[in-house]
Amino acid sequence: MKINLKTIAVAAVALFVINQTTVKAQGMPVKMVDPPKNWHTLDLKKDGFFGISLNQAYDFLKGKKSKTVVVATIDSGVDTLQKDLQPILWVNTKEKAGNGKDDDNNGYTDDLHGWNFLGGPNNKCDVNETTEEVREYFRLKNKYTTITTAAAAKDKTEYAYWLKVKSIRDSTVNKSQSELAQLSPLMNALMTTDAFIKKSLNLEAGQTFTKNDLGKLDAKNDTLSKSKYIWGLILQEADSSKTDTKTITELSEYITKLNNDVTPDLDARKRVVGDNPDDLNDKKYGSNQLKFDDASHGTGVAGLIGAIRNNGYGIDGVADNVKIMAVKAVPNGDEYDKDIASAIRYAVDNGAKVVNMSFGKKISPHKKWVDDAIKYAAEKDVLLVQASGNDNQDVDVKPEFPNDTFLDGSTTDNLLSVGASSALNDENLPGTFSNYGKKSVDVFAPGVKVTSIDKDAEFNTADGTSFASPITAGVAALVLEYYPTLSAKQLKEVIIASAKPLNGMQVIKPGSKEKVDFTTLSRSGGVVNALEALKIASKMKGERKK
Q1: Which residues pair with 401 in a beta bridge?
Q2: Span 63-130+265-537: which CATH code?
């Protein structure tokens, strides 16, 4: 998931309106037509929405038996009390819950449903972090700020790395400062106008409103009129269940992330977790507590993969016989390479066969640690499914990390990179924010206005390759449930082959106005399809080693 960047574009308009003392009563913005909340599961030919043909996939599976597949989510944690997830949470049966002992001697005490690599003593967690380029900038700053030429540097390789870090960091900070300049006053305006709206709707403390409630509001004065208009602008991109409170919370989290780039807290990790993130051998850290205030992202991701189907609540996950292993390693900011390497190994060692990784960053100072963990997963026949990223850039040119190319230039066949697609088969099929790459992105999958469960019995509709990735991981898990002898390499081949190339389909390239053939944006040139994946898998001879 990601903050809707249209909110930032809307900020300037909204602030202009709220600051005009002579503005008359404003009409509500034009209502956007939302796709069905389950559009990502639908079939293009039958339903008119470019989903993954999930109903047709289950029709194909009628009468067939499945085997449970453990799917790990390396993410921001999960709400273990979410009733659409509770029955499918992975349980470490070798561990006795709550006895304070490492019963199975795997190095993690009381890891009943997974592990939190950001956890610290006294139920603390390193929730907010800065970006990796900022951390690396300050690590190298004193050493290289006075050196102006490569000839003056003793370590030419590190100096070149410093120049790269500095360039990326400067770009990140400039962008963050620009967005803060827009979003900080917007947040103040939202807080003020929120109070006017609630008072006019006679809402009590703790109650919230949605964009549908705004339609009931009779704006009798200029202040209320402007309040209604600004909230109409902000909520017009949201689904009908999005509340003012959730909007403010999401913006607040995003502003915190931006502030962490501009004025970083570089001691948070040491203060909260207590380990050395630059020492892979410093392994005794973390906790078994998986839900903190930032668990929304991981909960939504888990729900898309395997939320209980046909229970009349929440959403229906893609896969019908999975166990979700929650591994918390992703903060509000960039993850640490040490945590990701450890998280992958934890997932593999504890039985995961598919691992979803809805995260990424621009710098990877300990890439070898992560590369080695990916290789370890490949040895154990584990498929890693990776979100391609939300910077609307060509990752063939500007890579995101982790990725399938190792430091020595070799590649792996157990990592699948996923871009985000939208609901309609038109020029806007690729998400405007999605990364792309003919070599580096394997497939596209639904990732625009996708609805999933959230923490605290709530729901959320959002954009992001973070959603496209678990939908794809769910398809991989579904295939493996019914064809358990397929190897990780074969699963990747099946997913890619299911995304039939959309030859001749002209679309707007993410981040530009240029039209390109959709097939140029990924290796497959298509959108993941569960039915096609199952059909292809049914004709393959399994090669799974373990």
Answers
A1: 361
A2: 3.40.50.200
CA distance linking residue 333 with residue 181, whole number of Å: 19
> Which residue from 68, 58, 71, 533 is spatially nearest to 348, judged by alpha carbons?
71
DSSP 445-497: EE-SSEEEE-STT-EEEEBSHHHHHHHHHHHHHHHHHH-TT--HHHHHHHHHH
Q: Which pLDDT score is estimated for 474? A: 98
The 8-class DSSP code of residue 236 comes to T
How many other CB atoms are found less than 10 A from the CB of residue 121?
Answer: 10
- State pTM to two decimals: 0.93
Give all strands (DSSP E) within 322-448, no chain letters.
322-328, 354-357, 383-387, 415-421, 443-446
pLDDT tens digits for range 146-167: 998 888 889 999 999 999 999 9
Q: Which residues of the chain have pLDDT under 70?
A: 1-33, 237-239, 546
503 touches 519 (CB < 8 A):
yes
Question: What pLDDT is recorded for position 546?
Answer: 66
**DSSP label at 153?**
-
Burial per residue of 306-337, b for 16 or more beta-carbon CB atoms within 10 angstroms, e otherwise = bbbbeeeebbbbbbbbbbbbbbbbbbbbbbbb
Looking from the CA of 350 toward its CB, the CA atoms found within 13 Å total 32
pLDDT tens digit string along 505-545? Answer: 999 999 999 999 999 999 999 999 999 999 999 999 999 98
Question: Taking Cα atoms as reference points, which of 441, 445, 438 lies closest to residue 422?
Answer: 445
Contact 90, 114 (CB under 8 A): yes
Strand 415-421 with 383-387, pairing: parallel
- Residue 148 has a pLDDT of 86
Q: How far apart are CA 287 and CA 297, in angstroms?
A: 19
Strand 119-120 and strand 124-125: the pairing is antiparallel
DSSP 129-149: ---HHHHHHHHHHHHHTT--S
| C-alpha dihedral (42, 46, 50, 56), degrees to nearest 10 | 50
| Residue ranges of domains in the chain | 18-31+144-255, 63-130+265-537
Residue-averaged pLDDT of the chain: 92
Contact partners, residue 275, CB within 8 Å, separation at least 6: 269, 282, 284, 285
Enter the tokens of residue 430: 């690729």
